[in-house]
Design brief:
This protein is of the alpha/beta class. The protein has twelve helices and 19 strands. Helix 1 packs across helix 4.
Length: 419
Amino acid sequence: MIMSIKLLIDPLVVKTSSIIKVKGLFSTDIKNYAGEEYDFNLTVTFQSNVVFYSGPIRVSGKPSRRGSKVVYKYCWNIPVPINEGKYEVFFDVYNSSGEEIGKEYGFFYAANPNKRPPLRVILVWHNHQAPNILPNGKYYADWGMRYVWCNELKPLYWGGPYFIHALMLLKYPKIKTVQHLSPSLLKQWAEVIERGYEVIDGRTYPPESPEVSSVKWVLDTFRRIALEGRIELLTSVYAHTILGFLVWKFEMSDIVLEELVLGKGITESVMNVKSRGVWTPEMAFNMKLVDIYSRVGVKYTILCGKIHFESAEGERSNIYSPYILENPRTGNNIIVFFRDQPISDYIGFNNNYPTPYEADKGAREVLAQLMLRYFLQNKEPYVVTIALDGENWIIFSKYPANAAYFLDRLYYYLTEAQE
């Protein structure tokens, strides 16, 4: 018998002394369906103590619209106690003989917003593509454009990772993010929108082609949202140079400065906004970069919450507080936001979701990690910085469509949590 069990909890974060909806779903193939009924049990615990129990509830099935399976479902309205914290939900399904045939686990969080400040979350997406163009003007690799229109996210979405990032920002207007669109990527987009492009394998895409039109839509969408103040744009050196290594090993501060001036100029001319922050490629940092960043007028960067925070000196509390990094010889300084490595790496490397339901569970786990940090706050609000590649974890997944669905659900749960 082919069957699946799902537990849907909405919302995942509620106020104490409120009501939360929990839906249990059980489905099986229709081939041998003969009107069977099943019993649903639901148990909710807080710190191992049962706070809600419902069962057995006898549930009858209904054939799905496509007629391939039978679906059994039941919805509970659960009163949430006054206790703050994580509530665990256990869903069990039994057949008519009393045998357990499946179970599922879920959770939700209850919080009193009057006890501590809201958690501040900074989502930083690093989108970068090298200038894969030959002196004759042809591209030997067109990833910068292909990741807009490559339709690798079917059957759930159209397009590629750059398209889905823009689309999700339109779908969830309360979500604000920090986007690093590398200057080399922006330059490619701007040039192909104007005159199209050709690849060395013979493929050609004129400006009026659907592919180039989709690139224009993505760039226009990012530009408009940036002008609305819903995304903050990071700049960087033109491509993806490992800056800290160059200024340390080869004393190439002059070249790094020149590259950063070039990159910042491209970012601001293409996007029509000023860039206040800078992406440090691979977070390879050296103190000489403080003076270079200061000279071009950027105010902050993102560094590793593990390696860089441990070597930071002076006044510091934890990685969830902005840190002022000053060069004592020159007096120049920048602000550093330390990356939360566990959450960032969870998104970036735990990306092979075989089903949309599993992707949804992954998004819920990110919210769970954020709630743990929320409860650690005292009077000073935490700033949790999540920073990672914007495109690779989606397109390199074994299931790119489900990775994109993870992003969709993550924004959904973050929007809910704000409300």
